[in-house]
């Protein structure tokens, strides 16, 4: 059991005592107009010492559903713990969020520059500040993401294989799927692993979109984790997941054999058999119709919702091997 006993928590020069609430300004940079750009960090501390949980979202500026999950955690008061401390950062990439873009103004993907550099690019400096100033205080981290572009992810937790404690945490979170995936070099998740900070990465939905099912899954998962550590206030109920988590060891993409107009005919999260028709590709003139079939049985964990696709585009993400 994680247990913090420090009476004073100091973040970015601000001191927060037990029982205090504070919004701390995470100063990222200044605009070319010299206007400062601050990211609010919402900190809630119980009068009783305990674990410190860090909630992050918006590493990619276009992943709005992750931001919505952390927003709801704050708005509903879930982040006010019975014991311990919560630190919420709903939007890390405020530049991308404002401009409705995935990357930073310097063109860099924030999730590919960790642990960052004090004197590097803008994105690298933000990564460095997060890792050096905030992450060291956390005992457990939940990072919320969505699918990219028009690809809709089923609600899922992504973790690296080989850590039983993280496996247990993923199961407690209660998303429908847990996908084993390697930690990408210079990602936030990989940096947290190197710092020995347990982290769950949640994926659900798609960019520029808010989905109620995805949001509810993320919020309920956060409540279960907080409840597990004794941090969730008694006024909040912890629901039991409707289905057991499916742990996926291996998966593959089903790609378009032809270019054309695309329509999926299978629900996200559905279980399919080899040879099932799960979509079709047509042309605008009514002369061509290609049925997309599965090459193996498994669960559909991502669906491309773009109406236009090109040959080679990823259409579906399907499990190939379960744990």
Give the C-alpha Rg.
21 Å
The major beta sheet can be summarized as: 5 strands, mixed, barrel
- Average pLDDT figure: 95
Strand content: 35-45%
- The count of domains is 2
CATH-defined topology of the largest domain: Aminopeptidase
Structural class: alpha+beta
Helicity level:
10-25%
CATH class of the largest domain: Alpha Beta
Uncertain spans: none
Can you count the helices? Answer: 6
CA(first)-CA(last) distance:
27 Å
Side by side, the strands of the main sheet go 8-9-11-18-16
Task: Walk me through what this model shows.
With 323 residues, the protein is an alpha+beta fold. It has 2 domains: 8-228, 3-Layer(aba) Sandwich (Aminopeptidase), CATH 3.40.630.10; 251-322, RNA polymerase II/Efflux pump adaptor protein, barrel-sandwich hybrid domain (OB fold (Dihydrolipoamide Acetyltransferase, E2P)), CATH 2.40.50. The protein has helices spanning 64-75, 94-99, 122-134, 164-173, 188-194, 212-228, and strands at residues 8-11, 14-17, 21-30, 36-45, 52-57, 85-89, 140-147, 151-159, 177-180, 199-206, 246-255, 260-264, 271-272, 277-282, 289-293, 298-304, 308-309, 314-322. The strands form 3 sheets. A 5-stranded mixed barrel has the order 8-9-11-18-16. A 4-stranded antiparallel sheet has the order 15-14-12-17, with no helix packed on it. Strands 1-2 form a two-stranded antiparallel ribbon. Strand 8, helix 4 (164-173) and strand 9 (177-180) form a beta-alpha-beta unit. The longest helix has 17 residues, at 212-228. Residues 49-228 form the Succinylglutamate desuccinylase/Aspartoacylase catalytic domain. This is Succinylglutamate desuccinylase. Its cofactor is Zn(2+).
